[in-house]
Amino acid sequence: MRPGQKRNRARQLRREMTDAERRLWSILRNRQIASSRFRRQVPIGPYIADFACLEVRLVIELDGGQHDRSLSDARRDAFLRRQHFRVLRFWNNEVLQNLEGVAWRIEQELLMDCPHPSLPPHAGEGADHAS
After folding, report:
1. Which range marks the domain in which residue 15 is found?
2. What is the pLDDT of the chain when averaged over all its residues?
3. In this structure, is residue 36 part of a structural domain?
4. Beta strands 47-53 and 58-63, pairing class
5. What's phi and psi for 77, nearest 5 deg?
6. Alpha-carbon gap, residue 40 to 17, rounded angstroms
7. What distance in Å separates the CA atoms of residue 124 and residue 97, rounded to the nearest whole number?
8. Beta carbons of 63 and 91 less than 8 angstroms apart
């Protein structure tokens, strides 16, 4: 798919979101989880990721029954990992039935990248030391 075609396809997918995508987007938009900015239907290489936080290189994919043990999903995940993205996959029914649990899991993944704000710096960080 050419870049212009991929961009147009991403726009179409944003207009035609599934119920699960709409539900997840309602909690990802406007930095609601760990103050992280997510985008939806993001072109990355030859693929379009359902959701991505580019700052921490996290991709979230929603899967319906057609994705069960999909070889194409495995190739996609491998490509994204080679591009230094982490990939979280959730089933559509997880999002529809347990949005709070999905949000918690996403937040945990995001917080793995962020040091706790109240912890002191490690030795040699953030302070000048006289030698």
Report:
1. 3-108
2. 85
3. yes
4. antiparallel
5. -60, -40
6. 10
7. 47
8. yes
